[in-house]
Amino acid sequence: MGAPDWAPRLGRIASHRSAVFFEKRVTALVAARRAQMEAGRPAPPDLLTALLTARDEGGGRGLSDTEVAANILTFILAGHETTARALGWTLHLLSRQPEVMARVQAEADGFDIDQPDWADRMPWIRAAFEETMRLFPPAPTMARKALEADVIGGQAIGAGTTVVISPWVLQRHRLLWDDPDAFRPERFLPENRRAVDRYAYIPFSAGPRVCIGASFAVQEAMIALAVILREAQVEPISRIEPRPVHQVTLRAHRPIALRLRKRQTAA
Ligand code: HEM
């Protein structure tokens, strides 16, 4: 709140401790996995193994342990809570819309990761996830500092001013969306997707600093939804709508409670 940068802050001390904790744990994990693989012992087919075995197409160079650890930390810090929140809100919205749920589950029943076009075969799952991120953007605001004086939409912005860009506001704006507060995944079906203005829908931001993990996140979420929904019927427990709260990411004011029943039709 305007205190000089050198002033000690509780939050910073706590976050520094967490950063050191994560860095130590991840560095140790990378070293252990590398040793396991070099000893010829089988390694699980996960992200860590993928990063350790990745080779540059040109010269065959792999990533150093520090680079692998940095990538894992990015996934934990930037990619975990964001994707998890979006998945929670998606299951919440689907649990309240049986017709959409039925379409999504029909796609989930045919999900086969070995098909190269698996993602194209699940337009409703993708659309439900994208529409959820419109209504509940995991990162509801972003901030930028103006390098120099400017005018945006007739508004004078002084040099050094912090400008807040809010997906939450843009993505529910009445001038930009028809029936903005309604959950209507059809907006994001392939035949309608092109009508969505690139700058009216920015859950992953836009421009040169757009989220580097955007397409990974969408694919990961689609897989998670397909796997959960082909096995389980997801039903609401309470009719009380969870209230969204902005605490770094957009969370519900209390945990979203859903009942999962094993589906009779599951393969
Ligand atoms: C649904 C999931 C996700 C959402 C909604 C999301 C959202 C965002 C947003 C809005 C930004 C821009 C922030 C800003 O400029 O102030 C961003 C940046 C970033 N995201 Fe994501 N993200 C998600 C998943 C991921 C994943 C899985 C990764 C893992 C690689 C990731 C890595 C990053 C990184 C490294 C940046 C900084 C990019 C840069 O500044 O050049 N994100 N993300």
Automatic annotation (TrEMBL):
Any Pfam family the entry gives: p450
Binding site for heme: C211
Entry cofactors: heme
Molecular function, one GO term: heme binding
Gene3D superfamilies noted in UniProt: Cytochrome P450 (1.10.630.10)
InterPro entries registered for this protein in UniProt: Cyt_P450 (IPR001128), Cyt_P450_CS (IPR017972), Cyt_P450_E_grp-I (IPR002401), Cyt_P450_sf (IPR036396), Cytochrome_P450_Monoox (IPR050196)
Entry keywords, A to Z: Heme, Iron, Metal-binding, Monooxygenase, Oxidoreductase
Keyword Cell membrane tagged: no
Protein family per UniProt: Belongs to the cytochrome P450 family.
Record protein name field: Cytochrome P450
Organism, as annotated: Brevundimonas abyssalis TAR-001
Organism lineage: Bacteria, Pseudomonadati, Pseudomonadota, Alphaproteobacteria, Caulobacterales
